[in-house]
User: Fold this.
Amino acid sequence: MSVIRRIPSNRWWHKKKNWIFFVSLILLIFARISKGSFYKDFYYFLSKPFWPGQFQKEVILKSVQQESFVQSNLLKKDNKRLREILSLQRLSEIDTISAAVISRKTGGWWRQIILNKGSKDGVEVGSFVLGPGGLLGRVSNTSLFTSSVILLTSPESKLGVWVDRIQTSGLLVGSGYEFPSLIIYSQDADVKVGDYVSSSPASTLLPPNIPIGVIQSIDESFKAKKTAKILLFAKPHAIDWVQIVEVKI
Amino acid sequence: MNKFISKKVPFICFVFIPIVFLWHPNWLGFLGIQPYWPLFWLLPWSMIHGSINGFIFGLFLGLILDSVTLESSFTQIPGLILCGVLFGRIKIHSDMLVGYFRYGLICSFGSLLCGTLYFLQILFNNFQDSNFLLFIPSIKNIFADVFLTSLFAPLICSQLFRLFNWYRHKPSIIYLEKK
Assistant:
């Protein structure tokens, strides 16, 4: 026969109180070892709205932005007026068409993107395409609903550009490689790594002063010309939306 | 109906080549470069149908792909035609029993050929400007292309080969049985 023994319930680990005590002890020890980092983080989030510097920083940044915005607007106006006087090519009242990139071939030999606006929407062959960062390429073919853009890196693309710091124009030649080459037809041109390259003010194909890229490295010069590799600002492999701008001559 | 579809399978695949070529799936790429898609179709086709068919469809493929890409002074036609003819010759030497790895080798050779021909065109086009040396860095394109094409060829080519060959074999077996 079996005797059912009463399970003793007066052991210390059967008491809830003790467990609570231990757990809170461990938590406290952890808090002590971690130097109260939980508290601090908690405090961080709690006190975030009341920080002193935050608001001030925003105000300052905003005013700086406004200042530069107003300044650039003034400069634009001034520039336009001067250009009108000199009767140079200008970016007239821009009518841009924004389009999405629906196909991109940005590696290998064929470097082109296809946009979802075509001749139906008034895109014309020869208008240029701007993305965030600057010039991407030129529309070289349109169908009814799409237009194909030849990128600056394509081996067929050749473009006159302007190096602003040394006031020299050069030729930007795509090569089927990430970094197109800039050719400057003078041996003693003082190009340096880090110079900005923009579209040429004398160009008839493009409006002036569109940022294109920055000189990344300079090759050895040979035969009375200098070549340099250009890092483009606009990254066609990451860009989804672009602006198509018509050239008015 | 089923037979009709299976007869048209090569042509359906043919139509999809430019689409894949334009689609340019980035997750398949390597250094931003894609495998050379037309070869995957051209290899089984010209192995089955011989050199002349390879020549013709190499020409067709080249025409279509040239129309899809923007470059007007360079063309992919010569490379594809050469590949078509060469792939057609392969059938004579070995009948059907082409191992997976040989697909890879053949395709890598083909893409090397196409890439080199294309590169030479770019070089000669810029020869008179004497800045053809600028294009040397883009040799990288050829090798990435060769690598990727040979990587995917065993997978895709063998499947396409089976697809294309399927409808051709069935009638011949029935024909033999009747005899």
